[in-house]
Specification:
heterodimer; A: 411 residues; alpha/beta; FAD/NAD(P)-binding domain; D-Amino Acid Oxidase, Chain A, domain 2; 2 domains; eight-stranded mixed beta sheet; seven-stranded mixed beta sheet; elongated; B: 266 residues; TIM Barrel
Amino acid sequence: MNIAIVGAGLMGRLVALSLLRGDQLRDKKLRQSQSQSVTITLFDKDNKLAHNSAAYAAAGLLTPLGESLHCEPNIVSMGFESLRLWPTLLDSLDEHTIFQQTGAIMVSHEQDKGDYQRFIKHLKNNYPEHALHTLSRAELLKLEPEIGRSFNQGLYLPQEGQIGNRRLLVALRKQLEKENKHTSSGNKLNWLSECQVIGIEGEIKNEINTTDETRTISYLHGGDKQCQRFDLVIDCRGTGATSKNSQRDCAPLSDLRSVRGELFQLFAPDVHISRPVRLMHPRYQLYIAPKQKGFYVVGATEIESDDDSPMTVRSAMELLSAAYSVHPGFAEANIRQHVSQCRPAFSDNQPKITHKGSLIQVNGLFRHGFLIAPVVLRQVLALVNNRINNTNDNLPYSDYLRTEQRQEEMI
Amino acid sequence: MMALNIYGHQLDSRLLIGSALYPSPEVMKQAILASGSQVVTLSLKRQNPAEQSGQQIWRYIQEVVTEVNGHLLPNTAGCKTAKEAVTLAKMSREIFKTNWLKLEVIGDDYNLQPDPIELLNAAEQLIKDGFKVLPYCTDDLVLCQRLYDLGCQVIMPWASPIGTGKGLMNPYNLETIRLRLPDATLILDAGIGKPSDACLAMEMGYDGILLNSAVALADNPILMAKAFSHALEAGEQAYVAGVMQQRQTAHPSTPTLDTPFWHQNS
């Protein structure tokens, strides 16, 4: 069986590794009896470092409650479920990736106390089942000594965490390369990086029964145009699938848009913060994610724009002054990197899986990629399983994750 | 409700609504539809307008505006000088094919207070250039008068600083502007927090309300949009109906013949 994955960002890599391992076949006996091996072709316009992916330009926060004021409750539920799923997934990788679940802290300056109190009320009203601790200045000083100096109170959300987003992308690449060499399942991976997909066209042999349908992917690789036919195509392109970035015969998602985000990577050895911190501010959404050995990620803007040019001075001033107000030690930090990237979002800012015949499209993870990826992965694998076995089994996360038949074919 | 007149265009709704800060574009769309508003403001300052990088969201907003048979009102939010505002205004006219403009020139970073001098300067240049200017200004009578004299048929004084939700900070000033500029279309812009704030301004005789945060940041923006729509209607009807005069002495609505006035102690 030939399966194509288009896009080797976070989702593309996770799906590729699972298919290479044969994880889509949930039943172990079935997996063993499955004589037909799978050949996976992973297409990506980027090189294998994935520096142009939304996942690279992220902070890897796993903070469902911290996000809850700006997202729907189903994202929060998927976030908590993913926090449960990540450790098993990471344990299966040889390369070490930071996974921390020691809670997160929310703070606000005295003049913005109204927003802080509103947030506490929001959590208590909408998420009473999850723990939260309001901290006095003394308690905050004890938990995060260097934050306590600047704030009179804070909120501690003990279940929140973070992941090493960039390390994970590297770990997944290495794992894919290793397992491809020593695969026991007979499955094979062919990773075509720096390859531009220019067409994803369906060929339906039978209008009523689409199980026979195949897809032909046209692509430019090394200057040559080539075509290849697949039994199944899993599209994980992110912003590459917007109407602007994707041609008519390349299965664009018409409701998908790009939302610009900017962040800094700072080296601040004099700052000692051990867990993610969010600053509640009426104008900015700021988080500081400690990434070990003195590195911090400070983000992130959210601008309705598909511009991925370098960070603007205004955004830089907003992010850095907000970070400085949380900890004056950032004044002496080195700016190691400033990153701008676009995140893919549908008009309701919800993720969506659409499928029709031999095409599955996973998109719209917006600013919640790492927060919900394991849940999205399981849902995709269940769909693949249904497709391969021609079954219609219930999908595990249909209550949370919109999964629907693609209504109109653009091709 | 009677029609709202914006530069000769008669609109059914007296609510003008912003398109920022909503949880998602879809919620924004539903809130605008629920509000009944036919004028939607949008800013383009941060979207690299020279490259038209905000095309996707602009198109989305334009589709909503078309659906309600309304008008787009581009603004110059984020501009600090007349020069900057004029440049952005020209770009927005080119992109959105409208000469309507909410003119905003900020003079203070902390409370985002408009700069009256730069505002007048920009308004003068833009009117000469054919723009229909809707200036966002402070509640200063003389400034409003000057803007009106320049040719701004619509004047938009603030209720309180943008995004504070503090409501009508200086009702005396706002009433004075209404009394002294009876022919201007007066829209109360910024600082509205609750539907009752909007209702109060409409009872004063304001022609309309422009708001954004009060709806977008509500726990349920769509429901709040409806609440504002009702509040504006109530305030407008109250103004037309004529509010009774306040009195010092109680006046029973049911005559109490057995209590003659000379029985009072004081």
